[in-house]
């Protein structure tokens, strides 16, 4: 069902995942009367879509007169948590968009305090089934993912790269799995170690696309340590253009892997065998850690 946005709707986002879904849903209405507070990667996304709507500089002013609060459920900030808390104190109905398939409970906990919204919005059947198990006493609704619809339309318009290209979608794993090295680098090493046996053409370009939350230059040293591979950083701003150029896509648990599968790409999960199992529930994903050598 399409979400219902009353006249006075406030939106608060930080991480890119939910912000993309929220913004695409708002664009679908054709309206420009939103009250918005954006931080982190979401601020850039908002300004690209609603350049004429001035952002509020505080949560308090954003929620003044609001009938509904819509937030993301990101990891990189407390701002969405604080917005839901403020909405509860003011008696404003709040909804939270869950843009992935992992860590549902943890998304609503900050500093030991749990703040749930009045409704949870998800965008596919996998997420709906999981959310209904995790939040059995709360309202869970499935809404259309207009961001995915737009992305798939844009991906289809992009021509493949002239040379074989694999897009590696990066993300911080926030754990070292007991090995003393960040998990994202372990996954990269495991992927490179198995690259030759996977049948890719020798001239394949591997383009690393950093996560929006990662610092510039984070992977430069790792690239330097693998001079025998044709590895380059992906400098394209649009994920749809990056996916459109690629023949293959790899990564750990990024939403972009699901988008790539929906776009018909061959997609690899690079989590090594010693890491916890991949939590993406979608069929069609090739798990390197499960393939026999």
């Amino acid at each position: 069902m399409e979400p219902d946005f009353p006249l006075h709707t406030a939106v608060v986002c930080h991480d890119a995942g939910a912000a993309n879904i929220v913004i695409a849903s708002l664009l679908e209405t054709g309206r420009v009367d939103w009250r918005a507070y954006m931080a982190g990667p979401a601020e850039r996304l908002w300004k690209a879509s609603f350049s004429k709507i001035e952002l509020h500089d505080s949560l308090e002013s954003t929620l003044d007169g609001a009938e509904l609060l819509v937030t993301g459920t990101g990891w990189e900030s407390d701002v969405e948590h604080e917005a839901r808390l403020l909405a509860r104190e003011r008696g404003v109905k709040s909804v939270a968009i869950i843009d992935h398939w992992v860590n549902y409970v943890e998304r609503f906990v900050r500093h030991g305090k749990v703040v749930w919204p009045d409704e949870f919005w998800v965008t596919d059947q996998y997420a709906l089934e999981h959310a209904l198990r995790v939040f059995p006493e709360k309202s869970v609704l499935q809404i259309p993912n207009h961001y995915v619809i737009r992305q798939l339309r844009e991906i289809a318009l992009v021509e493949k790269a002239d040379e074989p290209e694999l897009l590696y979608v990066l993300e911080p794993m926030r754990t070292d799995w007991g090995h003393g090295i960040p998990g994202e680098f372990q996954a990269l090493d495991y992927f490179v170690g198995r690259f030759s046996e996977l049948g890719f053409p020798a001239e394949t370009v591997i383009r690393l696309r950093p996560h929006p939350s990662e610092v510039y230059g984070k992977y430069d040293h790792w690239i330097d340590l693998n001079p025998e591979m044709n590895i380059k950083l992906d400098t394209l701003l649009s994920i749809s253009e990056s996916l459109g150029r690629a023949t293959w896509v790899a990564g750990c648990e990024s939403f972009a892997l699901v988008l790539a599968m929906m776009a018909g790409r061959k997609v690899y999960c690079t989590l090594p065998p010693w890491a916890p199992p991949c939590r993406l529930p979608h069929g069609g994903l090739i798990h390197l850690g499960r393939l026999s050598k």
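The first strand starts at residue 9 and ends at 13. Residues 16-29 form the longest helix (14 residues).
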